[in-house]
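Why does residue order matter? Because the sequence determines the fold. Keep that principle in mind as you read this record.
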Amino acid sequence: MSLPARRLLLPVMTGAASLALVLGLAPARAATPGWRIVTTVGPARPVNLFQSAAATSAGDAWFSGVTCSPCASGFVRHLLVVRWNGTTWHRMTVPAVVAQGVTDTGALAAGASSASNAWVFGETAAATPEEGSPEAAQWNGSQWTATALPSWAYSIAADGGKHLVPAVFSASDVWLFSLQMQGSTFYAAHYDGTTWSQQALPGDPVAVSALGAADIWAVVITPQTAGLPPAQQQYLAVHWDGQSWQQVPFPDLQPAPGDILLPEAMAAVSASQIWVEALIETSSNQVTDLLLGWNGSSWTQVDAPLQDEGVSPAGVVQDGHGGVWLPQSGPAPKFVPYLYHYSGGQWTRHATPQAAGTQTQINGFAWIPGTRSVWAAAQSTDVAQGTQVAAVLKYGP
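Structure:
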């Protein structure tokens, strides 16, 4: 079903060019295979899901999530890691210090720079169930090495969870961003091959997308407004050039009194093509989903064709040819999952693949570099039984 796009030009936008022309979008090829489930990991259990995905090429992808074992009352969650080597799927055995007792699925993340440098991040049970110990494991192509992270590497966000975004460039250049730090100072954790250190950030990070070691983009809450109620917070777009963070003007959407602007996720394609998914939540709890596009000098706003639909934790991902994918669900009361594609100035809605009697939820994306294909980390839930299998979805060949 094709849905028309409604474009609004923001005050910082000059000229009347559409987002498609501004960002040089091209329509998707009709022959590209659609979304499908390519593998699942079972058996079905109360908890069994993939939370995060990373890809370095068509022949190297990583998926991390959790599974319960044992799965009786009071079950313990364990880290679940699967790798695609271009031919076959392998379930990886991760060091026990990282794999056992996962306490927060939001703290799960995967990142990689090559087939011989992949990282998984988790949080294992500490002295009390309410606390967790941040851990990481690095794959060097033949074995895992566990690394204890400093306690400051993870922060509790406003929603009470932990949300991590890794950026892995080499074995001696790894960034880990903890979103919504809610402190008075803001930083990312950086690994130089030996130690983790704090790297100062120009604000409280809410979304991050990295293209290279000297090309990291983020949306941050300004330090002056980070501790204020959400309706009073202001945002900056910032860029790491390898030496320092540079500010990029961020659109002032000026929501009505009582409304809240919430940047949710971003996907950087190049210095002249940045996407940000944002929400405006009204005082009556109505939500408008927005897609913002940066062309190197100005922003354009595109209204997403969503009506009272739920917000997916997966965020936004580029499609490899100028467009983006957004997962959503709706309408109430069933909130059936969908995928929305913006390409060539048009929105299309795609059903999320799922077997009869199940519902598939996407939790994370990974664009496959150099292609028009995208991986998705997901879970497929048996609606009647309430059990899950971890699932990997793919778009494209």
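The chain has one domain: 2-395.
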